[in-house]
């Protein structure tokens, strides 16, 4: 994989054995209007989690349906989504990384987002995350996953959201 990602974290300790997480830059910044007329701004990201160990790792992420604010943007409401479609590197140069974001949001705007999968030894799993807000931000959105022990954290402009885990399956 090239250097077309924003952050990379390598974990090799007793809890997170041989896990690498790469998070992309954002794409999007376009507007989306729901069927009831509510307008949002969205950005799309991708994440690649690589399991370099000789055993399976189970990835589990849950994003709430609730809107929330972050300290750097206290007047803007945000919501997070995990589209079911798997990301591939061939989509990297496409708008929204090849995700049909409008269809996804039309169908999932009020649903919780969950992801649960097993990453096999010496394999990677690429997936999307989408951030929507009720207003555009003044500046750039940066977001991505990190591990703190076995807890998965999603950082949105340095605001930490506990959202899941990566568990070793022996």
Automatic annotation (TrEMBL):
Origin: domain of life: Bacteria
Protein name (database record): Uncharacterized protein
Species this protein is from: Aquimarina addita
Top-level taxonomy: Bacteria, Pseudomonadati, Bacteroidota, Flavobacteriia, Flavobacteriales
């Amino acid at each position: 994989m090239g250097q077309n990602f924003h952050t990379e974290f390598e974990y090799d300790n007793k809890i997170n054995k041989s896990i690498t997480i790469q998070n992309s830059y954002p794409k999007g910044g376009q507007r989306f209007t729901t069927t009831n007329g509510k307008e949002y701004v969205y950005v799309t990201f991708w994440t690649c989690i690589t399991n370099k160990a000789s055993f399976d790792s189970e990835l589990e992420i849950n994003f709430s349906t609730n809107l929330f604010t972050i300290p750097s943007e206290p007047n803007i409401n945000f919501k997070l989504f995990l589209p079911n479609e798997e990301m591939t590197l061939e989509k990297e140069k496409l708008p929204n990384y090849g995700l049909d974001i409008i269809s996804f949001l039309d169908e999932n705007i009020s649903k919780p987002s969950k992801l649960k999968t097993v990453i096999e030894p010496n394999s990677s799993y690429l997936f999307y995350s989408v951030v929507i807000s009720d207003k555009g931000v003044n500046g750039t959105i940066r977001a991505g996953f990190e591990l703190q022990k076995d807890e998965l954290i999603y950082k949105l402009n340095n605001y930490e959201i506990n959202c899941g885990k990566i568990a070793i399956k022996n």
